[in-house]
Amino acid sequence: MRPIAVAAAAGLASLASTCWAASTGEPIDIPQGEAVLKATVFRPDGPGPFPAVIGLHGCDGLFSPSGNLSSRYRDWAERLSKAGYVVLYPDSFGSRGLGPQCRNRPSARADHERLADIATARDWLQGQSFVKADRVSLIGWSGGGISVLWAVRPHSTVKNGKPDFRSAIAFYPGCHRLDVTAWSARVRTLILIGSADDQASARACEQMVAGARGRSARTMIVVYPGAYHDFDHPNRVVQVRTGYAFSTDGSGRVHTGNNPAARADALKRVPQWLAR
Questions:
Q1: Residue 5 maps to a domain
Q2: Domain ranges, residue 201
Q3: What integer is the mean pLDDT of 39-60?
Q4: Which of 55, 121, 49 shows the shortest CA–CA distance to 84?
Q5: Do residues 210 and 180 touch, judged by C-beta distance below 8 A?
Q6: Predicted confidence (pLDDT) at residue 70 exceeds the cutoff of 50
Q7: Cβ neighbours, 10 Å, residue 33
C-alpha cells in the first residue's frame, strides 16, 4: 500500500509537529538469567498506568560514539512519552559488550538473542505498576525491525502466558528470510519502508506481506516513494556509506538519511497505529 494521507487522531496531531524539550531517559539493569540486560526507560509524567512500547535499535546500536542515546531514539522516546507511553529501549549490543554491527553480521542475532531481549523487556514492563500489561507494543528499526517481525509470528518463542503484544511497527526491516519462512503476524503489524532503500528491499517486504494475506489480515505496509534507509532520522542528511554487511545489491554501498515527507507521515502514522 502506498502512502495515504491520514488525519491525526484527536490529542495526537501535535505529536508530529511539536519540538519537545529534551529529557533524560533512566538507565536500568534487568536480570536476564545469569546476565543483565541494560536498557533505558522513558516515563510520562504521572503515576500511570500507561501503555508501553519496547523500542529495538538498528545495527548502529542504541548509543552514539559520544555515549549519548542516539538522536533518532531520543526523538521517538520524547515524542511517545509526551503522548502518554512508557518507552523501554533494550541495549542488545552494549549488554553483550558489542559496538555497532553494521559492517559485520551481528553476534546478537535478530531471531535469537534479540528475541530473548524482547521477552525480558516485556516481562519487566508487565511487572511494573505504572504499565498497562495488556498495552505493550513493539517498534524496531532496521535489524530491530527484523526482530519485531520474528517476534510477532504465530509460533514465536516470545510468549510468557501474559497478555500478548498490542501491536507492532517495523521500520525498514530486511524481509528476505522471513518471506521464505511463510511469515505472518498474530498481532497488528505495520511496516514502513522507502522505495529507494538499498539496505533493505521494499519489494521483498511487499512480497512477504502479500503472501501473508492468505494467512493473516493483520499487516499493513507503507512504501514511501524515493525514501532511503533511516528516513525518519531527525537530523541526518542523506549520505552514502560503504562496507556494510547487508545491501540489496551485495556491494556494501548504501544510502542513509532523512526524507522529510516520509518522516512527517511516520510521525503521524505511528501514534495512530499504537492508539488503536
A1: no
A2: 13-275
A3: 96
A4: 49
A5: no
A6: yes
A7: 8
